[in-house]
Specification:
The complex is a heterodimer of chains A (383) and B (302). With 383 residues, chain A is of the alpha+beta class. Chain A has two domains: 10-224, Rossmann fold (3-Layer(aba) Sandwich), CATH 3.40.50; 240-371, RNA polymerase II/Efflux pump adaptor protein, barrel-sandwich hybrid domain (OB fold (Dihydrolipoamide Acetyltransferase, E2P), Beta Barrel). Helices cover 21% and strands 35% of the residues of chain A. Chain A has a six-stranded mixed sheet, sandwiched between helices. In chain A, strands 11, 12, 13, 14, 20 and 21 form a six-stranded antiparallel sheet that branches. In chain A, strands 15-19-16-17-18 form a five-stranded antiparallel sheet, with no helix packed on it. By secondary structure, chain B is mainly alpha-helical. Chain B has a single domain, classed as Orthogonal Bundle (MetI-like fold). Chain B has twelve helices and no strands. Chain B has helices at residues 17-53, 74-114, 119-127, 134-144, 150-157, 171-195, 199-207, 212-223, 225-241, 244-249, 257-266, 271-296. The relative contact order of chain B is 0.12. Classes of the chains: A alpha+beta (383), B mainly alpha (302). Chains A and B meet through strand 6 and helix 2 of A and helix 7 and helix 8 of B. Chain A: Pfam families: ABC_tran, TOBE_2. Chain A: This is Spermidine/putrescine ABC transporter ATP-binding protein. Chain A: One of its GO terms (molecular function) is ATP hydrolysis activity.
């Protein structure tokens, strides 16, 4: 199914977009490999949709370039770009049948016999036999798939997806995530997916770029970003983190020594992004283990002591809040695997972790402890 | 008390179901009554009266009275005598419609899609001329187009008009008047449907290889069809029956069928002829409208 013509990588070079005094996208440079599934992840207003619209040609950059292979497409009109978009609102043509919606791009390029292609595309998105209906007669998930078929049929070099699953309910969204991934593998087209849903980005993409205020905070494979975030923003936007404010005092024996709230901790140098000065010591909630007393902490692990102030049972896990001696509440996820007893609210507990699971980030001197609130979705997720 | 509470509260007991549903069934007809009565008295009765008049003996007169002779020959007779005015009516109205579309579509589009916060003000500008009388406005055009007016002088100076050329009392003036006077009837329905046009659909079309021209033809135009159909009908029907523009801006050479009917009733007092012409005009307009709706699709008007 893949096109024979060489597509090449999609490259954004120093791309900037300003609306008046507001800088939506700020000197963005990145390369998206041909055939990869790339996710731009960020809260609403972080510039991810503007970036997408500049790739599509629907927005003109203030400065910088968009390159496809070695071709500069920055000033190319949208209808001349080998790029198609699945819009957030789907934007299906209400006056045309599903068949004609899907055939739209082919017809505009003067292709006469579209029947086979449209039928094939409709079956790829599992909508065989829906050709004669109008968009208004379809459910949200079906409309989403029509929008996908309508874009994919043109075999673009790059397919842009602008929060395409945002309007679907949770179950359908999960289903479509798997579906999209399957189709992407099948057609081998570069997918650039914009989303505010970190789980969606991690499930589908090979590479995730976390955007904040018009800039990319971190770019990499989902697991790499999750395991070793580059900034406090990433640590809390992609999943949750407990970030303790401390002072790094230099490397010794392969570890960086940190003092936080009067206690000494250490983090392997390989997991430290700073070796001196103010730092955040980070541990993911699921990497923390709760026990009753300090003598149950295994050797080589580090711990803090506190009081359990809240326990929420959420089925697969129990999420605890532990208030430390200096007042910060740490978030702890304990898998409900049946191997450990549940800890009662109000009781004293010790949270320990393996230093190899911790990470060290540079910190603004004024910044204090940061703990993500217990939420299913990151803050600012509603767009 | 507990059992009787609902009926004991001073309210009448609910009507039995049969009576209630009967009253419900009557309600729509009751609501229709005033409008239906109005139509019957002021449209139905005169229409029958006019139909009867069109079959009167053509040799009668107001002073001698008319005899009902079922003179069907009135119809071929008036058609024979006035077919040029008929053709002219539809020709002028059609020409004016084309001009109005060229002016009105971009205007409606600009107000609906591009005007932003100015859109209400611009709409008022479209409607504002209607605050003065139709007659006054047409008379104003008479002044503008007059032989010693500034416009004619300018056109003569730049040689767009021959030294003795004129605008007033030409077919051009009549078509111009029609275009001007009925333009808002075209623009308002068009505006209403263009205003609802989702801009994102145009982005999607552009994204799917449609050039601006193609996007207009395949998306904007079909989606504005309801407004276009309604607007063209609202424009064309009164324009083809109009007589004021031909009367004030033209000469008898530009007279339309409306002028003939006007003079049949008010000058020549030939009621059978006037009535027959009125019916022919109505039939012709109905034929044009039905032919048009057939092509454009009736679903677009509703």
């Amino acid at each position: 199914m893949a096109r024979e013509t060489p597509a090449g990588d999609l490259r954004l070079a120093n791309l900037t977009k300003r609306f008046g005094v507001f800088t939506a996208v700020d000197d963005l440079s990145l390369t998206i490999g041909q055939g990869s599934f790339f996710a731009l992840l960020g809260a609403s207003g972080c510039g991810k949709t503007t970036t997408l619209r500049m790739i599509a040609g629907l927005e003109e950059p203030t400065s910088g370039q968009v390159l496809l292979g070695d071709r500069d497409i920055t000033r190319l009109r949208p209808y001349k770009r080998p790029v198609n978009t699945v819009f957030q609102s789907y934007a299906l043509f209400p006056h045309l049948s599903i068949f004609e919606n899907v055939a739209f791009g082919l017809r505009r390029r003067g292709i006469r016999s579209v029947d086979d292609e449209v039928t094939r595309m409709l079956s790829l998105v599992q909508l065989d036999g829906y050709g004669n209906r109008r968009p208004a007669q379809l459910s949200g998930g079906q409309q989403q798939r029509v929008a996908l078929a309508r874009a994919l049929i043109n075999r673009p070099q790059v397919l842009l997806l602008d929060e395409p699953l945002g309007a679907l309910d949770l179950k359908l969204r999960r289903q479509m995530q798997i579906e999209l991934k399957r189709i992407q593998t099948e057609v081998g087209i570069t997918f650039v997916h914009v989303t505010h849903d970190q789980e969606e980005a991690m499930t589908m993409a090979d590479t995730v770029a976390v955007m904040n205020a018009g800039r990319i905070e971190q770019l990499g494979a989902p697991a790499d970003i999750y395991e070793f975030p580059a900034t406090a923003f990433v640590a809390n936007f992609l999943g949750q983190s407990n970030l303790l404010a401390g002072e790094a005092t230099g490397v010794g024996g392969g570890d960086v020594a940190v003092t936080a709230h009067g206690t000494r901790f250490s983090v392997p140098a390989g997991r430290s992004r700073a070796e001196h000065g103010p730092v955040h010591l980070g541990v993911r909630p699921e990497k923390l283990i709760l026990v009753g007393s300090a003598d149950q902490v295994p050797a080589g692990h580090q711990h803090v002591t506190g009081i359990v102030t809240d326990a929420s049972y959420v089925g697969v896990s129990t999420q605890y809040l532990v208030r430390t001696g200096w007042g910060t509440e740490l978030s702890v996820f304990a898998a409900n695997s049946g191997t450990s007893a549940r800890v009662a609210v109000g009781s004293e507990a010790v949270a320990y972790w393996d230093p190899r699971h911790a990470f060290l980030l540079p910190r603004d001197a004024a910044d204090t402890d940061r703990t993500s609130p217990v939420l299913d979705e990151p803050v600012g997720a509603s767009s | 008390m507990t059992l009787l509470a609902p009926t004991g509260s001073g309210q009448p007991p609910p009507a039995p179901p049969a009576a209630r549903s009967g009253r419900r069934r009557l309600l729509p007809y009751l609501l229709l009554l005033p409008g239906a009565a109005w139509l019957l008295i002021f449209f139905g009765v005169p229409l029958v009266q006019l139909a009867a008049a069109s079959l009167y003996d053509p040799s009668g007169s107001l002073s001698t009275g008319y005899a009902m002779t079922w003179a069907v020959s009135n119809y071929p007779d008036v058609l024979q005598a006035y077919w040029p005015q008929f053709l002219r009516s539809f020709g002028y109205a059609g020409l004016a419609l084309v001009l109005a579309l060229l002016l009105g579509y971009p205007l409606a589009y600009a107000i609906a899609q591009k005007a932003g916060r100015w859109n209400n003000l611009l709409l008022v500008c479209v409607v504002a001329p209607m605050f003065t009388s139709f007659l006054v406005r047409t008379l104003a055009w008479k002044t503008i187009l007059s032989d010693n007016g500034a416009l004619v002088g300018l056109l003569r100076d730049v040689h767009l008009l021959a030294p003795d050329g004129r605008l007033l009392a030409t077919p051009f003036a009549v078509v111009l008047g029609l275009t001007y006077n009925f333009l808002p009837f075209l623009v308002l329905p068009l505006y209403a449907s263009l205003e609802r046009l989702d801009h994102r659909l145009l982005e999607a079309a552009t994204d799917l290889y449609a050039s601006p021209v193609q996007a207009f033809r395949r998306v904007t135009l079909p989606l504005s069809m309801p407004g276009l159909v309604a607007g063209t009908l609202l424009f064309f029907i009164p324009a083809s029956g109009d007589y004021i523009n031909a009367e004030l801006l033209g000469t008898p050479n530009e007279y339309m069928i409306g002028n003939v009917i006007d003079s049949a009733f008010l000058v020549r007092l030939d009621y059978p002829q006037g009535a027959a012409l009125s019916f022919l005009l109505m039939a012709a307009i109905l034929a044009v409208v039905f032919g048009y709706l057939r092509r454009a699709g009736t679903e677009e008007v509703v």
